[in-house]
Amino acid sequence: MAKFNYSQIRAFNAVARLSNISAAANRLGVTQPAITAQIRTLEKSYGVMLFERSNTGVRLTKLGRQLYRETASLDEQEEVIDHILGESAELKTGELRIVSGAPSLCVELLSEFNRLYPQVRLDVRFGNWGRVTSAIFERQADLAILTNPPEDEKLHMVHLIDQRLDCLVPEHHPLAQQASVSFRELADYPVIFRNGASITQRTVDDCLARAGLRLEPMVSLETREAVYEAVAEGMGVGFMLSAASKRQEKVRRVPILEAPENHPEKLFCLRPNLRRRVVQAFFDVAEEWAHGQRPV
Questions:
Q1: Sorting pLDDT into bands at 50, 70 and 90, what band is 226?
Q2: For labeling, which of 106, 168, 184, 290 is most exposed (least CB within 10 Å)?
Q3: Residue 53 and residue 98 in one domain
Q4: CA triplet 171, 175, 176: central angle to 5 degrees?
Q5: CB of 264 closer than 8 Å to CB of 159
Q6: Alpha-carbon distance 207 to 209, whole Å?
Q7: Regarding predicted confidence, which is higher, 229 or 28?
Q8: 191 by DSSP, 3-state: which?
Q9: CA–CA separation, 294 vs 296, rounded Å?
Q10: Residue 169: domain span
Q11: Known Pfam families for this protein (predicted)?
């Protein structure tokens, strides 16, 4: 059995990272057939299948995901080497994969980073709490911005802001002019929940449990955008963390009495990633931004 070589692993990593053979070939500066040949040789040498192929692209098999968790660090090592050899040069190239739980704060940081480093390519995706954390630990993203991220020694974190849980009500709703609202009052109105691994819904559930209350949702929706639109159309009242969106039209945000605590929004990455120059640059921008948000 022939042993794998670095070129094969490099090709495998590129396809695993981009889920597209053509994009991987462009990234590595080689032809698409060359990438395909490297991966097929690797699979044939060990009698395994690393990717499932379809008309829309490729995706990792279970074995492929297991392998990528180990080999992804090689890409990080390449960037560290490049940083060591070219640390005196201005940051003019690079790529960052960022995943975030909400767009509002993320876009603010992206705008500032792009202003300082306009030639760095940014690939940004959004998802719920579960998807964001999985993307980091499975090395599908370099950085993440999330509310109440997991406490893990493998992660490097920077605190950005604190936010509260708000009740969203239609602008002409009876509760819209109140300074605050209790969960008991909401029992008289149709309620909209999030579904899936949502930190917002988890926060609502925790608050209700502490208060010894139970609310039955009229409808459960997957995204905060869907919840916002449903509230704006008068379907019921919903919930959102205060920094998740800056939208104000047709909706009022009312603080909840049983949810007084703040929820930290943090930027984080796997610790080895911090050695990459472009990652450290983003952390520098975020820390400077966060410093400007705190009272002097």
A1: very high
A2: 184
A3: no
A4: 30
A5: yes
A6: 5
A7: 229
A8: strand
A9: 6
A10: 165-261
A11: HTH_1, LysR_substrate
